[in-house]
Design a protein that fits this description.
Blueprint lengths: L7 H12 L24 E8 L3 E6 L5 E5 L4 E4 L6 E3 L14 E6 L3 H4 L1 E10 L2 E14 L2 E12 L11 E6 L5 E6 L17 E6 L19 E4 L3 E7 L5 E6 L6 E4 L36 E2 L7 E6 L12 E5 L4 E8 L2 E9 L4 E6 L5 E5 L8 E7 L2
Antiparallel strand pairs: 1-24, 2-3, 3-4, 4-5, 6-7, 7-8, 8-9, 10-11, 11-12, 12-13, 14-15, 15-16, 16-17, 18-19, 19-20, 20-21, 22-23, 23-24
C-alpha cells in the first residue's frame, strides 16, 4: 500500500530496483524455503479483464467501481466488472521518468459523504524531483468524471536529483482522522537516517496535510510530521482490523521485508538490512543491531521485489481472513503472508507468470491484480475468483 551511493554503484542499483522497480519483538522470520507454486496449483481462477497502460495502483469505491492510476499520469474510473473505463480529468502533471508515476490512490474515510480522493505522484521542482500528496473531489456528470478542488497537501523534503524510490504510499489511520504517507530514500541512502528531511520516512499528517499533533520524534530534532524512519523503498502500507500498521518495502539486493510500523522506531536502513548493496558491498544484518526494528518477514537470498499490500477481509476465502497479500515484480508472483496478531510467517507464493504491481480486494471479496506493464509485461487488470 513501504526505496541507494552515487556514480556507477548507483547506476547498478537503479537497474536492479527497476527489476522489481505494539511492543517490538525484534524477531526476523525469513522462511527461506518458500517457493512459488505452479500456476496449476493456484486455489483461484484468473480472468484477464482489461488491457491497461502501465497501471500502478487501484482502490475500490463503495459501489464496487474502481479507481486505477497509470504510470503516465492517467487516473481511470472503472466499472465494477472492469470492462468499461473513463479517464478522470483534473489530475496534475506527473513526471513519469524512471520510477516516477501517478502513484497511489485512496478514498477519504468519509468518501461516501464528501467524494474526496487522495492520490500521490512524482513531480519536478526546485532542487530536483520529489513525491506529492494531493486531494480532489470526484465529480461525475453526463458520463464524464473529473477531480475538482484539487489541492496539494504535502511534499517530501528535500527534492533531489534522480528518478527512483519515490514510494508515495497512502494509508488512513483507523481513527479516520490521520493520513500516513510513506516516502522512499530516493536512492540516496543516508537521508533515511537524516533528522532534517522526510526521505526514507513515514509521516503522519492531519487529513489536510499538516503535521499531526503528538508525533513521536519532534522532540529528538526530527521534522514534526515524522512517525518512523530508516526505510528504503516503501511500496505498500495498510492497517489490519486490530489497528496494527503493516508496511512492506523493497530492500537492497535480496533484502525485501515486511514490517509492523511502530511510532518513533528506526527501521535501520542503510545501517542494517538482510540484503546487501547491489555493487556487492556488505550491509550488516538486522540481527547485529537489536536496538533497531527488525522485520517480521524478510526474503534473504531470493528477491521478490514487493509491490502493493492488501489485508484480506475474508468474504470469499475465509481461511485467509486477516492475511497479507503482496504483489511481486521480479518474483512474478502473488505472495500470501500468514498473520497471527503481530506475528507473521510466509504462507503461499503463487506463480503469476508476470510482474504484479498492486493487489486489492473488491467489496464482494474478490481479489484484483494489476500487471505492471514493464519489462515485457503487457499491463493488465486481472480478477481472481475461488475455484470450484
Amino acid at each position: 500500500m513501504l526505496n541507494l551511493r552515487y556514480g556507477a554503484a548507483a547506476f547498478v542499483l537503479l537497474a536492479a530496483c527497476n527489476q522489481g522497480g505494539v511492543a517490538s519483538t525484534g524477531n526476523v522470520s525469513d522462511n527461506s524455503a518458500q517457493a512459488s507454486a505452479p500456476a496449476g496449483e493456484r486455489p483461484f481462477t484468473v480472468a484477464n479483464v482489461a488491457t491497461l497502460d502501465s497501471p500502478w495502483a487501484m482502490t475500490f469505491l463503495p459501489d464496487g467501481r474502481m479507481l486505477i492510476t497509470q504510470k503516465g499520469g492517467q487516473m481511470l474510473l472503472g466499472s465494477a466488472d472492469g470492462q468499461q473505463r473513463i479517464e478522470i480529468a483534473g489530475v496534475p502533471a506527473v513526471d513519469s521518468a524512471g520510477q516516477g508515476a501517478l502513484k497511489d490512490v485512496a478514498l477519504h474515510p468519509g468518501f461516501a459523504q464528501n467524494g474526496l480522493v487522495y492520490f500521490s505522484y512524482s513531480e519536478a521542482g526546485q532542487g530536483g524531483k520529489g513525491a506529492v500528496l494531493a486531494r480532489g473531489r470526484l465529480v461525475e456528470a453526463d458520463g464524464q468524471a473529473r477531480l475538482e478542488q484539487v489541492s496539494t497537501l504535502y511534499r517530501a523534503t528535500p527534492y533531489v536529483e534522480g528518478n527512483g524510490h519515490y514510494s508515495a504510499q497512502i494509508a488512513f489511520a483507523p481513527d479516520g482522522q490521520h493520513v500516513f504517507f510513506g516516502l522512499g530514500d530516493r536512492q540516496k541512502f543516508d537521508p533515511a537516517q537524516d533528522k532534517g528531511g522526510t526521505l526514507g520516512k513515514i509521516v503522519r499528517l492531519t487529513l489536510d496535510g499538516q503535521p499531526a499533533p503528538g508525533n513521536p520524534l519532534a522532540a529528538q530534532g526530527f521534522r514534526p510530521e515524522v512517525w518512523s524512519y530508516g526505510h528504503r523503498n516503501i511500496l505498500g502500507m495498510a492497517f489490519d482490523a486490530s489497528g496494527n500498521f503493516w508496511q512492506q518495502e523493497m530492500g537492497p539486493k535480496a533484502g525485501d521485508e515486511l514490517n509492523i510500523v511502530l511510532p518513533g522506531r528506526n527501521y535501520g536502513y542503510p545501517i542494517v538490512s538482510d540484503g546487501d548493496h547491489y555493487d556487492g558491498r556488505d550491509i550488516p544484518d538486522h540481527s547485529t543491531r537489536p536496538d533497531l526494528e527488525a522485520p517480521k518477514v524478510s526474503w534473504p537470498g531470493t528477491a521478490i521485489s514487493p509491490a502493493g499490500l492488501m489485508i484480506y477481509s475474508g468474504k470469499l476465502w475465509p481461511q485467509w481472513r486477516g492475511d497479507i497479500f503482496i504483489g511481486a515484480l521480479s518474483g512474478q508472483a502473488l505472495v500470501r503472508v500468514d498473520v497471527d496478531g503481530t506475528n507473521a510467517t510466509k504462507g503461499d507464493q503463487w506463480d503469476m507468470e508476470t510482474r504484479i504491481r498492486d493487489v486489492a480486494e473488491a467489496p464482494d471479496g474478490s481479489i484484483w491484480l494489476l500487471e505492471d506493464g514493464g519489462r515485457g509485461a503487457g499491463g493488465k487488470l486481472m480478477k481472481l475468483s475461488p475455484t470450484g
